[in-house]
Design brief:
Blueprint lengths: L1 E5 L12 H14 L3 E4 L2 E2 L7 H17 L5 E3 L3 E4 L2 H9 L12 E6 L10 H10 L3 E5 L5 H5 L5 H5 L3 E5 H4 L5 H13 L3 E4 L12 H11 L1 H19 L4
Parallel strand pairs: 1-2, 2-4, 3-5, 5-6, 6-7, 7-8, 8-9
Helix pairs in contact: 9-10
Bound molecules: fe (ii) ion.
């Protein structure tokens, strides 16, 4: 399995504070059945990690995983917050962002937690990214109060071609009943979804398999298979050597 949203790099953002904790998280993920992780440290207004910052940390962690005999591949990535769509577009064009797998296929995008910073041109932004041949994956909208209160804001993003990442902990109720209900409702009504853990450390990590088990139990095997298939599509795309 691939986890495409995981703050596993040690000491770079609000993820693990030490290498030992990263390795512990890595072992937990492997035991859960995860074989590939895209490391997605924050790229927002206060922690603004770009590909030049991230790539050496990913290489160093893979070295440590190999030395420790942990069978896990960590690919580069980042959770890029759109706190200002003009700045986002400029940095995107400068190619300084670290998209998933350091490829130009999928990018993990987060909207601000403040409704006031939700860009008026968000739909155009999704279309703009799609026009560049990439699929934006919107991180955990079920956790954003303004999306829950105004689901009409989310639908046009999906219609414009965004995929939606639902966090396993939301489905398990660890972010409260509202996030759980919204996540479940989205999975019931939309195909364009993908599960990820958004793990930050051993205290904030439930694994991926409990998410698929939850979906299987509540929404059925077909839905769980569909979600796993979409994630696998990302995994294969990121691991296939570029032509
Ligand atoms: Fe995250």
């Amino acid at each position: 399995m691939i986890d495409l949203h995981c703050h596993i790099l040690p000491g770079v953002d609000d993820g693990p504070t030490s290498l030992a904790e990263s390795l512990k998280l890595a072992r937990f993920c492997v035991a859960d059945g995860i074989t590939v992780i895209t490391a997605t440290p924050h790229c927002h207004s206060s922690i603004h990690l770009l590909r030049a910052d991230i790539l050496p940390h990913v290489a160093a962690l893979n070295q440590e995983l190999q030395s420790a005999g942990i069978p896990l591949t960590v690919l580069p990535g980042s959770e890029i917050q759109v706190f200002d769509s003009t700045i986002y577009r400029r940095e995107f064009e400068e190619d300084v962002f670290c998209h998933l797998g350091d490829r130009h296929t999928f990018t993990l995008m987060e909207f601000s937690w403040q409704e006031a910073l939700f860009p008026a041109d968000s739909v155009e932004l999704i279309e703009w990214i799609r026009d560049r041949g990439m699929t934006p994956i919107v991180a955990h909208p079920e956790r954003h109060v303004f999306f829950r209160e105004q689901p009409a804001l989310l639908q046009p993003l999906v219609d414009a071609g965004a995929w939606i990442q639902i966090t396993v902990d939301s489905l398990l109720g660890n972010f409260g009943p509202e996030a759980k209900a919204f996540g479940e409702q989205f999975l019931r009504t939309h195909r364009e979804a993908i599960l990820a853990t958004d793990s930050h450390n051993m205290k904030r990590c439930s694994g991926l398999s409990p998410g698929y088990a939850w979906v299987q139990k509540h929404l059925g095997s077909d839905r769980a298979r569909d979600l796993a298939g979409r994630a696998d599509q990302v995994r294969i795309s990121l691991l296939t050597p570029p032509v």
